[in-house]
Design brief:
The complex is a heterodimer of chains A (about 220) and B (about 260). Chain A has about 220 residues and is of the alpha/beta class. In chain A, about 40% of the residues lie in helices and about 20% in strands. With about 260 residues, chain B is of the alpha+beta class. The chains are: A alpha/beta (about 220), B alpha+beta (about 260).
């Protein structure tokens, strides 16, 4: 009877629910050298960790937006199995505000796609990593900060900011509603292992739950 | 009066995510039959983030069943949906009081006991439900047609719901009453929703329910077998949440003085 049940019951063919995650990455000149190398390595770790979790690999969708003098969508949303980690290079200024606005827009577009296709989804994440501060006119940065605040209030997105090295933590705190965290040294690998574990928890979480995130072993206290 | 003997099989299993996080299974289930033969079932799903989620879910199902069992007459004897709504509202309020007492005993807040709750009453002629939070109830009528008795989607995101302990929880309660002779019922927590209901309309998926309903009708069927099914690789590959499934069938109708 046991094996019968297992063999006889069939499951509804629903699309997997999606958990969108934008990596919003600083690729300005100051990131050059070992920082950008460690970041690239971290992104590869992120993919590997997520791939090891069958549910997360079907549910988590990754996008990458970089900001230097330009803002670029290096990777539009893909599920983890189709995600090819890019090799990022660092040069130029820090168009952080514009990058934030682009990431928010990308998330809004993605949610519209989910809705059109009847796909259930979790609250998307934007995960920003920077070692500096915006070099754009103030009004752009202010506008970006406002948008982040509004989206957080409406629960449109969860926005996280991580500062590396000489990042201006005070500016980050003005932008991010959530307390920005400072990366310990070049612990990018630990950071991305944590991000992967968090994504696994969110994408496997039951409806109704604010899942407890794992403790960060990568941040300065 | 006609009397039905119900056959109830229930199983709860811990999800793989809860195993990894070393959280206990936070689902709970309770049932009872009134002297006149009405079946009462309650299923709760404790919030993973709540400190006493497991106790909250346990307390909720027990309080719900107690309230409905101890009424002077069977919950569905009189009236229609409006009467059921009034009665089930009292039931919810008594559950909320029980949770508040628990919280006071533990010197905690009620939100530490956050849980969803589904209560179902079945008689030979009607089935009624009350639901706060997620999960669903599917019934099969005498013609073998499946009906989604109750199911809710609260917010935009999959991981959002209301709890019994949420602000204004009662305003989110869904009350249903279905007139007729239900042949089978399935009550389940949200972990099974994507397997059992076809989105976007949450239509009950017959190839999921039919074998389970045949199963509960077979005399040798046991809760252990149901549990083994919920633990099977095929199920676990599709969800890592705690799962509770209650299957209800009729043993057969016998006359009663």
């Amino acid at each position: 009877m046991v094996t019968e049940l297992e063999e006889m019951v069939e499951f509804a063919e629903n699309p997997e629910p999606r958990c969108a995650c934008v990596l919003l990455l600083d690729t300005s000149g100051s990131m050059a050298g070992e920082k950008i190398d460690a970041l690239n390595e971290g992104i590869r770790t992120f993919k590997e960790e997520l791939q090891g979790d069958p549910l997360a690999s079907r549910r988590v969708e990754v996008a990458i937006v970089t900001f230097d003098s330009q803002v670029q969508v290096v990777q539009d949303f893909v599920t983890v199995d189709a995600f090819e980690p890019p090799l990022l290079h660092a040069s130029g200024q820090t168009a952080m505000g514009t990058g934030i606005l682009r990431a928010l827009e990308l998330v809004r577009e993605r949610k519209a796609v989910y809705k059109r296709n009847g796909i259930a989804y979790y609250r998307p994440w934007i995960f920003m990593i920077t070692d500096g501060e915006p070099t754009e006119p103030d009004h752009i940065v202010q506008h970006a900060a406002q948008q982040v605040r509004r989206e957080e209030e409406n629960k449109g997105v969860a926005f996280f900011a991580v500062g590396v090295d000489k990042a201006n933590m005070a500016t980050l705190a003005e932008i991010s509603v959530r307390q920005p965290l400072k990366l310990r040294g070049l612990a990018f690998r630990e950071l991305f292992v944590w991000l992967s574990a968090s994504m696994q928890r969110v994408s496997g979480s039951k409806p109704g739950d604010q899942v407890p995130l794992p403790p960060t072993g990568w941040s300065e206290i | 009066m006609e009397r039905v003997e119900w056959r109830v099989l229930a199983a709860s299993v811990q999800g793989s995510m809860h195993e990894r996080l070393e959280l206990p299974c936070q689902d709970a289930f309770a049932d009872a039959t009134t002297p006149s033969g009405a079946l009462i079932v309650a299923v709760a799903d404790g919030a993973g983030s709540a400190r006493y989620a497991q106790q909250g879910a346990q307390c909720a199902v027990q309080a719900m069943v107690e309230f409905l069992r101890n009424l002077p007459s069977d919950p569905l004897t009189n009236g229609g949906l409006d009467e059921w709504r009034a009665l089930a509202t009292q039931a919810i309020e008594s559950v909320q009081r029980a949770l508040a007492e628990q919280a006071a005993q533990h010197e905690a807040t009620v939100s530490d006991f956050a849980t969803t709750l589904i209560g179902v009453v079945a008689t030979p002629h009607a089935v009624a439900s009350v639901q706060i939070g997620d999960g669903a109830v599917v019934l099969e009528d005498a013609q073998g047609q499946l009906h989604l008795l109750t199911h809710t989607r609260v917010g935009e995101y999959l991981n959002e719901t209301v709890f019994l302990t949420s602000e204004g929880a009662l305003s989110h309660a869904r009350f249903e009453r279905w007139e007729g002779a239900a042949a089978h019922l399935a009550i389940f927590t949200d972990g099974l929703e994507l397997l059992a209901l076809q989105l976007p309309d949450a239509t009950p998926y017959p190839p999921f329910f039919q074998p389970l309903f045949r199963f509960v009708d077979s005399p040798e069927a046991s809760a252990a077998q149901l549990e083994a099914f919920l633990r099977s690789e095929r199920v676990r590959a599709r969800t890592d949440d705690d799962l509770t499934l209650v299957l209800i069938g009729r043993k057969g109708e016998t006359p009663c003085e």
